[in-house]
Amino acid sequence: MRQKTFLVFGATGQTGQHFVALALKAGHKVRALARNPEKLTSTGADLRVHPGSIHTAADWAGLVPGADYVVAMLGDRKTQEKHNINTAFVRSLIPAMRAHGVKRLLYQAGGLTRVPGRRLSPVVWTIRKSVARGYEGQHRDNEAVLRYLMQDAGDIEWMVHRAGIGSNGPSRGVLQRSASKISIATFQDCAAYNYRTVLDPAAVHTYDMSKYQK
Ligand SMILES: NC(=O)c1ccc[n+]([C@@H]2O[C@H](COP(=O)([O-])OP(=O)(O)OC[C@H]3O[C@@H](n4cnc5c(N)ncnc54)[C@H](OP(=O)(O)O)[C@@H]3O)[C@@H](O)[C@H]2O)c1
Fold it and tell me: pTM (2 decimals)?
């Protein structure tokens, strides 16, 4: 594949670090917004790290023109308890993408993210309200992002990964999209899934989970 430019939000996070390394290894250019650029472990001539926050459009709006793919693996659990910060960001990002003809966005949410108009299964709902209750704000924010994309961004080639992640261990296989089943994967495998999925036109307007291939 010809060299592409990936604009990455959340590059210093647990999934993002793996994603940046993968995209660079595949020969692409990466533009990363980071509050703390020194946290990024990847280096190289094809990586540009721009200091800043998603809360300040002036920090990131200049990174959108010329990007081929936008990938968001964002989270701030504490702040998301009170504010839908990812939703506010995506609501600014989408018009910026439109303005510059940037079409494709992959947004990583979670396996406990409810799809608008659907219910979580009783088992998943119980997990969300018990062991995962500390992440309720993040789930709500991810749900609001998905609702916004479904209702107001049909012209953008978005895709949402409802990821299940359990550890930062080594690869356990290849994840594939699944509407009904989820694997508890590693960050590395989720990043590889995000990389493959954002390049896949068949994944546009999907909000699937990911499951290891047998
Ligand atoms: N972790 C899990 O087990 C898990 C499981 C399933 C789904 N998910 C979903 O996957 C997504 C990413 O999770 P993760 O665990 O990979 O992320 P993470 O390790 O929590 O990292 C989050 C990333 O977002 C960045 N960020 C937060 N606020 C920002 C701001 N204001 N401006 C710029 N960057 C900001 C962080 O930057 P800093 O380095 O500066 O903090 C970091 O790079 C979340 O939506 C989460 O719900 C996570």
Answer: 0.98
CA distances to 3, 86, 100, 178, 179 from 163, in Å: 27, 16, 29, 11, 12
Domains in the chain and their CATH numbers? 5-208 (3.40.50.720)
The mean pLDDT of 66-79, rounded to a whole number, is 98
Give DSSP secondary structure letters for 112-139.
Answer: TPPPTT----HHHHHHHHTTTGGGHHHH
Burial (0-12, 13-18, 19+ Cβ within 10 Å), 121: exposed
Phi first, then psi, for residue 51 (nearest 5°) are -70, 140
| Residues flanking ligand 1, CB < 6 Å | 10-16, 33, 35-36, 39, 53-55, 73-76, 108-110, 138, 142, 163-165
Pocket perturbation via mutation, ligand 1, pick of 39, 42, 73 by most ligand atoms within 8 A of CB: 73
Split at pLDDT 50, 70, 90, the class of 1 is confident
CA 210 to centroid of ligand 1, rounded, Å: 18
Q: What percent of the chain has pLDDT over 90?
A: 99
Amino acid 165: pLDDT: 95
